[in-house]
Fold:
Amino acid sequence: MSPRLAVRAVIVEEGRLLLVNAFSDAASTLWCAPGGGVEAHSSLPENLIREVHEETGLRIKVGPPCLVNEFHAPGGGFHQVEVFFRCRLVAGALSEDWRDPEGVVTRRRWVSEGEMAALRVKPDSLGAVAFRRGMGYDPLEPIVGP
Structure:
């Protein structure tokens, strides 16, 4: 089975990073950057603009890549490669009324670096890349459950 390709947005506004729930299970405490799977015949930025809007209702401008993360299920067939891009908001605001058409993202929040330290967030290097800039690579991180 080939690795799945996904894109994610690193959006920092006023010192706060946008995170979304990683699993649709309301009991899950795992957070991640918004984004998702890539559809064929669309560029990575086009896919990311679509995914962020679906999950948050926000419109973004996609900047340069800043992190590549791989994760997998040891002993299983799942393997995903994610390309993270620095993005900035161009329109919209988070709303409790917004609904992800796929029903996966049900919670969205802006967090400071200090608040993020108290959360379960994947990938492990997301905070360092988001708040300190630079480029990162996380090789083959084991997937974690809700």
In short: DSSP finds three helices and nine strands in the chain. Residues 57 and 108 are 11 Å apart (CA to CA).
